[in-house]
Structures
1.
Amino acid sequence: MSSATTSILLLLLMLVGQATSCFGAPDSIEHMRIAGKEYARLSDWAKSNEFGLRWLKRDETVELVNSAAKVVLQIHSPEAQVNGIAVRLLFPLVPHGEGVWISLADLKSTFEPVLFPPRLKRGEALRSVCLDPGHGGKDPGNQVGSSQEKKFALLLSQELQTELKHAGWKVTLTRTRDNFVELPSRPEIARHDKADLFISLHFNSIGSSASSVKGAEVYCLAPAGAPSTNAGGEGGGARSFAGNRYNDENMFLAYQLQKALTRKVPIEDRGVHRARFWVLRDAVMPAVLIEAGFLSHPVEGRKIASSSYRRQLASAIVDGLAAYKSVMERGL
Ligand SMILES: [Zn+2]
């Protein structure tokens, strides 16, 4: 291929890339490169998508509102909320010149999937879930006193299995007893089971000096080129993985589960995060990892050990899945 042809192709690819990078009216949105990443002016994006923009706190907190949604963003911060649910941005919001700029990666991968969710093709339906109780066997996961994450992850998964079956879902598990399952085998089991969705279940822990930390986090796979929002979740570099095919579904599923957990349990909202956890990288269906609370928190840790609290967690996850399914199946 001649270099001229290559240049034209590259140019076309760039143009196509830009045209699909923003929804709404992409032509009206000015792009700028900041620290090697493409950014758009927030006010342009807001206008294109019929959001009103106002400062809640001048040069600090900005709010976008329309009849369907409210988004709150902080300058220089990765913290954001969509309809009151915490969502961690891939890149912080940047003030520049007269405006505030937001990464195209966040517009496309963080906000679009939640504000303008993906849909299944007509007639398609979601019926089956593969649950993945974290750790097991020689890998206890987090340990606080005699409490082991692997035990509560399995108990929560079993409770969730019962409730999901009750709600009409077909459910399989990557382990049903206290045995060790290699990380790469877990999404492989889900693929073998032909599961429509994959949910890995875990409990968090933090050193005793920070035992006041509590709450739920839901993770989905970081998009290619974006950093993980979890220091431990960066495995494999920032390249693309099989699971990135489902970026939109992953994000929307994570959001619905975080919303259900924080509204229905309720549990403190630590937000939707991205990471390149092994079990998410290779999933060939929409996949999330739930950290359903901190074993290290004196009160939350005790709750996690109680079956009635795990029932509440399971019931919220069932509701989150129902909400996801309903939108994906076009509200049917
Ligand atoms: Zn874990």
Note: Confidence is low (pLDDT under 50) at residues 1-22.
2.
Amino acid sequence: MNLIASVDENWGIGADGQLLARVPADMRQFRQHTLHHVVVLGRLTLATFPHAAPLPERTNIILSRDPAFACPDAYVAHSQEELFALLHGYADDEIYVIGGASVYRQLLPYCRRAYLTRFHAVYAADRFLPNLDAAAAWQLTACSERMRHAGLDFTFLTYENSRPLAY
Ligand SMILES: NC(=O)c1ccc[n+]([C@@H]2O[C@H](COP(=O)([O-])OP(=O)(O)OC[C@H]3O[C@@H](n4cnc5c(N)ncnc54)[C@H](OP(=O)(O)O)[C@@H]3O)[C@@H](O)[C@H]2O)c1
């Protein structure tokens, strides 16, 4: 499976339940990767979407431990075991883990590739992605040119995991 995230210079991903920055090129790249594929997300990330609705034109799998939680037009998995059972119905490279922090942390060992947008800034983040530069199994394999939107510099990065776990 893949992971997709935007991170600041300190691997921050969110603050106060929201994203750190909104950059149209980042949103476009997210859409291009995930459209018509499977997205895996935590319940708190779903709550940040407009009307707390699943992403259109994608198979949404939402993680929640609440047995009463339901979401129209989405699957709900109540544990990692339930999630993996659902994921066995899909091709590994069509699956994208889209956050938030708790879901990235749990599923990172199973991901083969991470598509990151690096914001060249430091925010007062309260949610983080594990530092892939400090993870022996992960290597940076691609880096775009540096781009800029509204005074914010950003770069697209690809990391690959040489030892992804089977699920
Ligand atoms: N920069 C980015 O690319 C990016 C992407 C996505 C999100 N974010 C940010 O990340 C933050 C949210 O992250 P977060 O860590 O607070 O929340 P989260 O990971 O989105 O959601 C956490 C919730 O997911 C459910 N969950 C997690 N693991 C589970 C498991 N193994 N089994 C069943 N349910 C499970 C639980 O829901 P219940 O409480 O219902 O049990 C848990 O409270 C926000 O600031 C958001 O904007 C950033």
Note: The two ends are 10 Å apart (CA to CA).
